[in-house]
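May I ask for an example protein's residues together with how it folds?

___
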Amino acid sequence: MSIQAIAFDLDGTLVDSIHDLARAANLSRADLGLSALNSDRVASFVGDGAASLVARVLADSHNAEYTGSEIQLQGMALFNTHYRAGLTLATTFYPKVQETLHMLHERGMPLAIITNKPERFTIPLLRELGVFEHFDVIVAGDTLPKKKPAPEPLQFAALQLNVELANMLMVGDSENDILAARAAGCPVVAVSYGYGSDIESLGADEVIHRFDDLRDFLALND
């Protein structure tokens, strides 16, 4: 395995954003006369993009799908307003993320973001957190017709970075990240601290418990 580029998921991998997501979700519910959900409940709905999150939050059900109903359209508009107004009020990097990203960037490693979060939130969030310039490619949830777990976002990123898929490492916290990497033919590292569940059983090449453990993985695979 020769790693020539690295692609990262965002929420649950680089940043803990659940408190800001939950705040925006609950403000939207309150505007619609609904009671608040706890952060863990909102966290269980994260991972498949903003529309899916809104549908699940409004219905308080993981099985809910976004169909463009009147209440979902209202909820989406409210969520857009509330979340965009407070993208980084409580969002923080996980330990050692900033230092490790800086080290990789300084060493000239091509870096990408591949997230299911819409671009309208992804780019401002990265700018507010001061790491936008670290990434050579950003593939958001609405950049392409398909998002993770489809392989297309990873294929697009590898093409933009001019590397073979087998030489681009995917790092994420969820089943979507692992499925996308496997479908694309990329090696994949999973972080254990994010929003995914049963991460040890999902078949990643490696599971790391701190972000800077990635350094050891890369050293072992030079």
Notes: Residues 70-84 form the longest helix (15 residues). The domain at 5-16+92-220 is CATH 3.40.50.1000 (Rossmann fold).
